[in-house]
Amino acid sequence: MNMDNHLSTSAPIRSKTNLCFWVCAFVVALLAIFLAVHTIPSLCTEGPCDLQEAIVDRLLNRSSLRHLLSVHRRRSHHHHHHRRHDDKRHKPECNSTKWDSKIASEYNAALVFIVDVKGCGNFSHLQDAVNAVPDYSPSRTLILVDSGVYREKVVIAANKTNLIIQGQGYNNTFISWNDTANSTGGTIHSFSVAIFSPNFTAYNISFQNTAGPPSPGMVGAQAVALRIDGDQAAFYGCGFYGAQDTLLDNKGKHYFKECFIEGSIDFIFGNGLSLYEDCTINSIAKEVPRGISGAITAHAKIR
């Protein structure tokens, strides 16, 4: 091999290697300066720091790094400013005066929870509030539910005794779900809300099943809005919305005062012994040329 050719080819390689080395060194130096800018002021308080700051300033002035740092800081400040602005913009406006309930004092409630879908209460879901009620409590617990549609399936177990739930009016506060007998394996499981506890009371709230009216001859379309199995339950100014089998007044003694009950087929049924006083019963059954398209009750026990 010709030694001259070998030397001529190795020289460019060394040149490129040297170039890469100095580029890397320059980048490392810039990073070191960047870190020094952020760490030196926090570590130094007097004396020797003046010399260090002077060296850093001189290096920054000879490069474009000061400009880059200033741009970075402005953008960072701008970002945090907007994030604080967005947090303030999305924070809900809460009005605590609307939670002044006379029921709390009338029943001498020992515990009061607030449920608000907008985030202004103790809970955003009714089931979470129910779960927080003390088991087998001898005193009353009041749950206040703000206006809105609460899409959830709620079970009030037998150990949640002496519970009161108050909404903001049956046209404003809805507990809503859409199960059917087909989707749950039976009519008694298709409820949106089920109450198994004794001494339950509800004010100004609606229980709704949004499954919709069944077509003629459709099987498994039963859709219960409320199932009540607990004894001595009372409902004041409440709404019950559904189509087939809206209100399952299953067992126990119950009282309904100034309530609105809507459905199409057998929409009040069950073996409960109940009094319905000054209630509105609204049929949404479709008219047919001949025959009967709907019925209020399945057991024909209304007196």
TrEMBL record:
- Single Gene Ontology MF annotation: pectinesterase activity
Domain Pectinesterase catalytic, residue spans: 114-301
GO BP terms in the entry: cell wall modification; pectin catabolic process
Alphabetized UniProt keyword annotations = Aspartyl esterase, Hydrolase, Membrane, Transmembrane, Transmembrane helix
Q: Extract the Pfam families matched here.
A: Pectinesterase (PF01095)
Query: What are its E.C. numbers?
Result: 3.1.1.11
Q: Where is the composition biased (Basic residues)?
A: 72-88
Q: What is this protein called?
A: Pectinesterase
Q: Which organism is it from?
A: Stephania yunnanensis
